[in-house]
Amino acid sequence: MTYQKIMGHKHAIAIHGGAGTILRESMTPKMEKEYLSGLSNALHAGDNILSQGGTAMDAVEAAIISLEDNPLFNAGKGSVFTHEGTHEMDAAIMDGATLEAGAAAGVTGVKNPIKLARAIMEQSQHVMLSGQGARDFAKTLGLAFENEDYFFVQQRFDQLNEIKDSDLTQMDHSMKDSLHDKKFGTVGAVALDKMGNLAAGTSTGGMTNKRFGRIGDTPIIGAGTYANNHTCAISCTGHGEYFIRAVVAYDISCLMAYKGLTLQQACDEVVMNKLVAFGGEGGLIAIDNQGNIALPFNSAGMYRGSKKQDEDFFTAIYGS
After folding, report:
1. Does residue 56 surpass a pLDDT of 50?
2. What predicted TM-score, i.e. pTM, was given to this entire model?
3. Please, are residues 242 and 222 in contact by the beta-carbon 8 Å criterion?
4. Measured between alpha carbons, how far is 58 from 309 in angstroms, rounded to an integer?
5. For the chain, N or C: smaller number of CB within 10 Å?
6. 76 CB-near residues (< 8 Å, 6+ apart)
7. Helix (H) or strand (E) holding 32
8. Neighbour count for residue 313 (Cβ, 10 Å)
9. First-to-last C-alpha distance (Å) of the chain
10. Is 9 exposed, middle or buried (0-12, 13-18, 19+ CB in 10 A)?
11. 61-106 pLDDT tens trace
12. What CA–CA distance (Å, rounded) separates 59 from 175?
């Protein structure tokens, strides 16, 4: 497999807003329209940057900020509640050109965790900061903070109260009395810019009722987020413990680099075979260095969207 940088690439972007048991029959037309609008707004935010010759990093960050600011999605403003009734958020971003990456884990109060992840990458000597330390770092840079009222979403609070007295943790969305009906709430974006550079980013509020500082795959480079110009950019959404154990994002890149699989082949092998074999549910968005896009998921649905330079905007929620 030869690796060479080709100038004048056609740009492309893909986004997700979570995967899981997302069923048409449990979605009102109004809610469906709002979710699709949220996905479309995020796609436009990223595509506008790419179409003007901007970087994949900037496009990924802009798309994720749009999703973090939307209370429908489990990241930023819409983050779910922990057992203690707080919000602990995770985020990561990676530059495929340099393999530099930044991640924040278990942070509270930061309006846009993806901005903090990028700041960690660009303005610290580290890849991952967590908890109070990450919060202190954000303050030194003057990043925006919000109080608890900003992050309060009634639906999220109701979800916590349904299971707070149990040992259960719950994904972003579940129907009452039906814990198998769930959504793995995470947002993410991957992009290819006109210079041929890839980038990936992911952000999440984690699991409802999570305890003891639980952290999922989102901020773990190679598990939930990965980008390499030689292969692909990946952002995952699903049951994080499984994605960590399967090192999902890096595994897809390795299958392309070492076995010569196409993006779609690599994604199908990991998402539809490897993950399913040991109970891992969810999906991901992926883009390779030629602008090919894959949006695989082994759950009932995944909030997703994509835009290639010469093609129409695409958004979808359900499986086939």
Report:
1. yes
2. 0.93
3. no
4. 16
5. C
6. 65, 67, 68, 69, 70, 89, 111, 112, 113, 203, 205
7. helix 29-51
8. 14
9. 33
10. buried
11. 999 999 999 999 999 999 988 888 889 999 999 999 999 999 999 9
12. 34
- Which range in 16-30, 111-125, 138-152 is most confidently predicted, on average pLDDT? 111-125
Cα–Cα distance list, 225 to 103, 178, 242, 276 (Å): 10, 30, 14, 19
Residue 282 predicted with pLDDT over 70: yes
CA separation for the pair 116, 212 (Å, rounded): 22
Phi, psi of 275 (to 5 degrees): -65, -45
Provide mean pLDDT across the span 15-19. 95
Predicted pLDDT of residue 1? 33
Token duo for residue 244 = 């960590």
Q: Which residues pair with 103 in a beta bridge?
A: 92, 128
Q: Are strands 101-107 and 128-130 parallel, antiparallel or unpaired?
A: parallel
Contact (Cβ atoms closer than 8 angstroms) between residue 296 and residue 283: yes
**φ/ψ (deg, to 5) at 279:** 90, 15
pLDDT tens digits, one per residue of 176-208: 433 334 567 899 999 999 999 999 999 999 887
Mean pLDDT, all residues of the chain: 91
**SS3 assignment, position 3:** coil
- Radius of gyration of the chain, Cα coordinates, nearest whole angstrom: 18
Interhelix angle 113-123/131-140, nearest 10 degrees: 80
C-alpha span between 183 and 81 (Å, rounded) = 15
Q: Which of 87, 72, 91 lies closest to 217, judged by CA?
A: 91
pLDDT at residue 70, as a whole number: 96
- Structural tokens at position 251: 């595994």
The per-residue pLDDT for 178 is 38
Report the catalytic residues: 186
Amino acid, single-letter form, for residue 228: N
Tokens 């960050």 correspond to: 61
- C-alpha 182/C-alpha 157 separation (Å) is 16
